[in-house]
Amino acid sequence: MSTPVIEILGLDFSYPDGTEALIDIELHIHRGERVALLGPKGAGKTTLVLHMNGIHRAPNHLSFGQKRRVSMAGVMAMEPEILVLDEPTSNLDPASRQDLTRALLSLDVTQMIVTHDLLYALEVCPRSVIMDSGRIVADGPTRELLTDADLLAAHRLALPAALELLAGAPNQPGKPVN
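Below the sequence we write its predicted structure tokens.
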């Protein structure tokens, strides 16, 4: 493979209260890859992204969608080699989400997308990395990781219940919708 555009070796980070947020993180991302960073709340995803970006996201008076558009425009104007996005679809309506998806898929830039939306990860990222308790616990093709029910359950991740309904699986509690 090519030389990685992102290479993290042995990254540890603890908050001032002693909470270990990142433990021996090793991660390589190559030019042009779209990689999802998945994991339950508190896994260390945002802390890792903050380290990668070297910044901490200033509040202003714009709506969430407007903040995203302005941020994306500013970042893209700099023609970055790497784009790191933390929950880019949160608080977006379906049409704005589709616009963002089309934009991200059209970019010829390395991308890391932090998301709790596992279906979105499957839609835009061929590769995913799962973190839990400050450690990387899985790294592989998104489809493979998301079809490993034991892996998802072990790290408090779940596909939407609606997906089970569409597949004909029983809805818990109660019966499937006909």
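DSSP finds seven helices and seven strands in the chain.
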